[in-house]
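Sequence only, no structure available. Ideas?
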Amino acid sequence: MSWKTALYNYIHAKNQAELEGSAAPLEAYVSDRDFVRKQDLRMRRLRDSFLERDARLLRGETKLRLQGVKESPWGIVADIRLHRFLDYRIGAAEGREERIETERVLIERRGGGWLVQNAEGLQGERGRPGRADGIQIPVYDAFGSPQRTAPSIPYIHPSIRNSRPQESAPRKTIYNRPRAVQYAETWWQTPNPRYEYFEVDCTNFVSQCLFAGGAPMDYTGKRDSGWWYAGKNGGQEQWSYSWAVANSLHAFFVRSAHKNHGLRGTEVEDPRELQPGDTISYDWDGDGRFQHNTFVIGKDANGMPLVNAHTFNSRNRYWAYKDSPAWTERTKYVFIHVADEM
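Reply:
I predicted one. Tokens follow.
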């Protein structure tokens, strides 16, 4: 058996484990028992999440792409990209959830064959320690340049660009929810090259969706205030913390809740109150610091939100995220209903 066969066996077993709600299928193909135990906890949470929704998993599929391979005396280190599909049914309605995950898989020699030792995610929905309120690092290519196919440009909202000099304030903007959702559907899988792409990209993606729906930027020119993205200036991207940092966007919504103009949102208690075009903030540790944001793009058959997100890139994902490696029993959510008139 080749190492590639061992890798394919691992992917197939992982796919089967999600359908069964147990990591038992992994036991024959993974040597690290602690890794299997952690996977079992996650699979059980996923199973319980579907049971809570009265949803039945129908099938799973995973497309594998090798992104890099390094050989060593003891085995293989393989970086892989997984495009995962989960099909389910609630009543008579069927749904499909998609996720893109990247992993580094360690494959060891065992006797005359190969066996996966363990795997680790190359990206995470928790982010990295110490990054919650700091500057997130853009993703660079092999030549040290930001991953972008076209240069960025300053972003000026039409309500500002088209205003007449005698007007004391920009005209009110109606938030275009279908357009914001269309943007989230277009760019959930790959980054829009007109923007910087961050190592932890969830909030940058949500901000782009809001802006695509017509949300006017609150441009202050100061990183720690307003909500803005100004493109490149002097060789560096310029943006506010609230544009790209999870906890900062949440804080911006809190501060702007009582304003009567510009981007603002109201916290609601029940996720069923959310509409496509709204947002959800995630505090994995329950300590008041938010580490993740998602964008609501629709509802399931129970009227519960489905979200698109980056890091991991996800489409039609159930809002509760209980299958995420970042999720804990202390996780708290904040549901933000974005104002329709800005």
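The radius of gyration is 21 Å.
Hope that gets you unstuck.
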